[in-house]
């Protein structure tokens, strides 16, 4: 009678039979750009992460490239906000100028986050009609934002607003302007999560009233997420995303099962802040927890991992701790 046995082997053999693989090429690092000069301000709730002006981003980009991280996602913090978030699609908006600077100076892949919450005076992700977001009006603006980022040099756009029909609206406008080959990574299953708190503080994007539950997803639902994914794929999304990652790994797995395009998972600010806080108090091993969280996302089915730990994970891959 035969018994299953664990491999009594050295690290080389263990690595050979690993079922889940992680590559540096799969990592994306989020960056916060603030309008102004000589700004490099640590985010209180996210130690090690910064709001920065364009003139102070060089050291961060160089560290990422040195570590082997080849992609960044940009978020903007403008000085001026209004009801229609006009700085989000301005030719010389903070994200557009950051894209130009980075693409002119560094061989790194740049993704523009496409949304309005950082740019609107009310903090919601679209154009308001009374106290509600007007979906059909908003998607016209979302497409304008995407086009402005691509014209500035973005390699990919990532709409995070969760409006219905925005992927097809973006695709049509990009194609009409000669950008048929620019991919769209859609935040397809973006939940109305409590894990976004530190990000909203970092990006000054908390809603002035109400919440975002009318357009972001109920945390109880999974079939809704699959419908959103189906719709985005049908509209032309090249990559679909689940956000947050850690509490929604079951959604990542289900999405992976129903689609044949890449799946991204976003390890959000609240996940990062919890690990940092617990590690600071000596309750956990930060490096090991960080690695386990990444492995769990890829094991669940993610092809791409958006994380504030991108640089550190790349170094752990070099050390053979994951990979």
Spell out the key features of this protein.
10-stranded mixed sheet, two-stranded antiparallel sheet, 323 residues, porphobilinogen synthase activity, Aldolase_TIM, porphyrin biosynthesis, zinc, TIM Barrel, 38% helix, 12 strands, alpha/beta
Describe this structure in words.
With 323 residues, this protein is an alpha/beta fold. The protein has one domain: Aldolase class I (TIM Barrel), CATH 3.20.20.70. Helix content is 38%, strand content 18%. The chain has helices spanning 11-16, 58-67, 94-105, 135-152, 166-176, 197-203, 223-235, 249-258, 269-280, 286-300, 310-318, and strands at residues 27-34, 40-43, 46-52, 71-77, 109-114, 128-129, 132-133, 156-159, 185-190, 239-243, 263-266, 304-306. The strands form two sheets. Strands 1, 2, 3, 4, 5, 8, 9, 10, 11 and 12 form a ten-stranded mixed sheet that branches. A two-stranded antiparallel ribbon has the order 6-7. A hairpin with a 2-residue loop joins strand 2 and strand 3. The chain is globular, with a radius of gyration of 20 Å. It starts with 10 loop residues before the first helix and ends in a 5-residue tail after the last helix. The mean pLDDT is 91. This is Delta-aminolevulinic acid dehydratase. Pathway: Porphyrin-containing compound metabolism; protoporphyrin-IX biosynthesis; coproporphyrinogen-III from 5-aminolevulinate: step 1/4. One of its GO terms (biological process) is protoporphyrinogen IX biosynthetic process. Belongs to the ALAD family.
